[in-house]
Write a structure and sequence with these properties.
Radius of gyration of chain A: 23 Å
Largest interface: A-B, 28 and 25 residues
CATH topology of the largest domain in chain A: Rossmann fold
Number of domains of chain A: 3
CATH architecture of the largest domain in chain A: 3-Layer(aba) Sandwich
CATH superfamily of the largest domain in chain A: P-loop containing nucleotide triphosphate hydrolases
Strand content of chain B: under 5%
Strand order of the largest sheet of chain A: 5-6-7-3-8-9
CATH class of the largest domain in chain A: Alpha Beta
Number of helices of chain B: 10
Oligomer: heterodimer
Structural class of chain A: alpha/beta
Distance between the termini of chain B: 26 Å
Largest sheet of chain B: none
Number of helices of chain A: 9
Number of domains of chain B: 1
Distance between the termini of chain A: 31 Å
Radius of gyration of chain B: 18 Å
Number of strands of chain A: 12
Order of helices and strands of chain A: EEEHEEHHHEHEHEEHEEHEH
Order of helices and strands of chain B: HHHHHHHHHH
């Protein structure tokens, strides 16, 4: 079941077109990552979908309730964490979910004023507010920015549980390890358009499974990238032998998701 | 409605906890009352008749104009406003809870002065307490509405503090609290009519003609707040 449908979304700031007809669907049980360089339009797309910005054209349909974690958000300094969650629950006409607060570790700083919270604690509090009311769709903008490794791991676990429970998640992130670990699909934004939308494995297929090869012959080193590692590596080794060089080390690594996205946006 | 009731009760506590309102609404006005009330009593014969309205107008003006705008400015800054919006808070929520909380605190301050002024300095109580209370409520409302409009109009807390002082000083100096407005030069007297403190002082002193100008102030400032809220909703 579709939780979010975005059709032909356009948004310009003055003469600068940020979104040029973006269409995207997110279904229940899916985690979709929005990827792209800074200024590609990820945050603008999220803000249009969240209702914070009015698009110039196109349509956004949210089926059911949505929870939102913003990239830049703040609460009054004197407000205590638990008061913020309770107020949010009242706004959403939903109960405060104690198990959620425990899972996110909010109970540890429930009585602390927001001004005294660390960046990671603030992120966890904002996420707890977003998850209050059990929304079917979640918008997360850089959800783990500022979190320590433990907090990051706990959040990843929670997001995987939420996906397993059928929630739809649309997240913007620069952390490719996070994207690889969490997302069922990626949507790559480039110059205001989605240039790829599909499973990370499909991106590898589209670009060809690129490998990076390093061959060391004593002091000398030869590096290259290839889409046909079997053929090109064999040829490179034959070239070394023909040149009278003895091979001391060979490294073959698969191109990371980050490199694939970079290759795609260069190609686009 | 439950969210509003909780938000209002929370804001009343936050105002005391955050110290801005505590200082502007209680500490400074009561300290001013204790010191200046004593001086007035010593150097100005017959001040007992005007002391209670004068001190009340000072306290309400200070509490509203100095205490409220920085709080509203923070609540309507994009990071806070957007967080509230995406979590389902209506746009007017923060304004209403803050303004109502300030209104309550200012009434409490006025009640404290009402009790303390006769006891401390032998100040005269109003001849018609009900009219005085209604006039006071209208004055507090008008001043709170002006402070709210200021808090919504400025974008940064530093600017809010600056404009608060810019409005507060002439409000107090030209309203007839420290000396009769008739002694002021005509242009300054005319300028004083632009501030609710002048009309509030007259109304609390029993001048019923000050009622409608104060109603007009309250209406204009409330309309201004509504227009500013609409503008805030449009901007991201």
């Amino acid at each position: 079941m579709k939780a979010l449908e975005i059709t032909g979304l356009k948004k310009s700031y003055g003469q600068h077109a940020v979104l040029r007809g973006v269409s995207l669907c997110v279904g229940g049980g899916e985690t979709v990552a929005l990827l792209g360089a800074n200024g590609a339009g990820k945050t603008t797309l999220l803000e249009c979908a969240e209702g914070l910005r009015r698009p110039d054209a196109g349509r956004v349909t949210v089926h059911g309730r949505a929870g939102v974690q913003l990239q830049r958000a703040a609460l009054p300094g004197a407000l205590r964490a638990m008061e913020a969650v309770t107020l949010c629950a009242k706004w959403k006409r939903a109960p405060v979910d104690s198990s959620l607060l425990c899972a996110l570790g909010v109970t540890e700083f429930a009585k602390s004023p927001c001004a005294a919270l660390s960046t990671g604690q603030q992120r966890r509090l904002h996420l707890a507010m977003a998850l209050t009311g059990s929304p079917g769709l979640l918008f997360l903008d850089e959800p783990t920015a500022g979190l320590d490794p433990q907090g990051r791991a706990a959040l990843h676990e929670l997001l995987q549980k939420l996906r397993a429970a059928g929630k739809a998640i649309l997240l913007a992130s620069h952390d490719m390890a996070e994207v690889s670990a969490l997302c069922t699909r990626i949507a790559v934004l480039h110059q205001g358009r989605i240039v790829f939308c599909g499973a990370p494995q499909e991106l590898s297929k589209r670009l060809g499974a690129r490998h990076r090869v390093v061959i060391r012959c004593g002091e000398k080193e030869r590096r290259f990238e290839t889409a046909d590692v079997g053929r090109d590596l064999a040829q490179a080794l034959l070239d070394c032998r023909a040149s009278g060089l003895s091979v001391t080390d060979v490294q073959v690594t698969r191109a990371s998701l980050e490199e694939q996205v970079l290759a795609l946006t260069k190609e686009g | 409605m439950r969210a509003f009731a909780y938000g209002f009760a929370l804001q009343v506590r936050l105002d005391l906890r955050s110290r801005t309102m505590l200082v502007a609404c209680y500490l400074v006005p009561l300290l001013f009352f204790a010191v200046v009330g004593g001086i007035f009593k010593a150097v100005m014969p017959g001040v007992e008749a005007t002391l209670l309205p004068n001190m009340t107008v000072f306290g309400v003006t200070m509490g509203a104009l100095v205490g409220l705008p920085p709080t509203l400015c923070e609540l309507y800054s994009p990071p806070v406003k957007n967080l509230c919006r995406v979590n389902g808070a209506p746009m007017a929520f923060s304004l209403l809870t803050c303004a109502l909380s300030a209104f309550l605190h200012l009434l409490v301050l006025s009640a404290l002065l009402f009790v303390a002024a006769p006891l401390a300095f032998g100040a005269a109580r109003p001849a018609q307490p009900l009219s005085y209370a209604l006039g006071l409520a209208l004055f507090v409302f008008a001043t709170t509405a002006l402070a709210s409009a200021l808090g919504l109009a400025v974008k940064q807390q530093a600017q809010a503090s600056l404009w608060s002082v810019v409005l507060f000083l002439p409000s107090i100096l030209l309203s007839g609290i420290f000396f009769p407005a008739q002694l002021l030069p005509a242009p300054l007297r005319a300028l004083g009519l632009l501030f609710p403190a002048t009309w509030g002082n007259r109304l609390l002193l029993g001048e019923t003609a000050a009622l409608w100008p104060l109603v007009g102030f309250a209406f204009l400032c409330t309309a201004g707040c509504a227009a500013l809220l609409r503008a805030k909703k449009r901007e991201k």
